[in-house]
Amino acid sequence: MKGFFRAAVLLQGCTLALLASLGLRAEPVVPVTAAELLQAWWIDGSEGLDISGLSVCEGELLAVADKVSERVYRLAPVAGANSVALEPRADFSRPPLPDDQPISVKARAMHFASTPLSMDFEGITCDGRDIYLLSERHNRIARLNPAGSRGEWLPVRWSESARQRGYLQLFNAESEGLVRIGEDFWVALERDPRGLLKIESGDQVGQRFYPVPPVAGLDFRGRSEDLTGLAYYDGALFTLERNAFAVCRRSLETLEAEWCIQYRGIEEGPEYVYRKTAFGKGEGLAVNDRGIFVVLDNNSVTRVAAPDDSRGLLMLLAFPSSGSD
Fold this sequence. Notes:
With 325 residues, this protein is mainly β. 12% of the residues lie in helices and 38% in strands. The protein has four helices and 22 strands. The strands form five sheets. Strands 1-19-18-17-16 form a five-stranded mixed β-sheet, with no helix packed on it. The protein has a five-stranded mixed β-sheet with strand order 6-2-22-21-20, with no helix packed on it. Strand 20 and strand 21 form a beta hairpin. The chain is globular, with a radius of gyration of 20 Å. The two termini are 14 Å apart.
């Protein structure tokens, strides 16, 4: 694999030099390779919860579920095991309806009709001991402090500014991934169109929106180009591009992809494939020294190899050779 990356870089350099000599310009070639599965774990206790977000927080792998509005979970996957328990990490009271932004009739009704579905948490990130959760229902970030038992909204809101720029046009296809990098938050805006929002300190309305630079080698197979998870590691932003079954490492400065891995052959392999495959299922992303963790949100669908098993799946994927340097 190292030879592949060296050859790709050499070929790219030669191609760009040739085009430059002709007065032409070409976009860089982004290496896209098949993902290597290091291990996978069925998530015990995840049935019906739909695990939707992951983050590495102070050495722990934390998770949220979009069918649970008042709990953060912990996963402790062990090498060689077939499954991992979904353990409660923190219970809290959900935040109230935001009173400083428009609330749709559907979101308002959901808040009072169903506590578990009221927040639709899709992302989790942390800063020291503080944990932040992303609510797709309200396109807001809730903060859990170490001593608190209640989620509190951060002042920043972006529903209005995002919609003015053409994002968040579809219900339930809105804010989908969250990561804190230094003093900033990055939010993944899911699809049609997808995008990234950078929230800098002091921003309370959402000002910096960015399109996601495409990667020629990714195949979305006619599905929406989407973003469902974000992570930060080794100075780079990692994006989970579900409908292409891909994870890409991207420059924080330009958002251009440096490399991508595709895991479709794993997710749809005979051991792991679920009974419905119209759309990809990757929702949560976390990255650390062990590799790239991706969690599949199977929407309670069972798998082909075990028709009674509706557990979610946690995968650990390897960095491409030389890709973590």
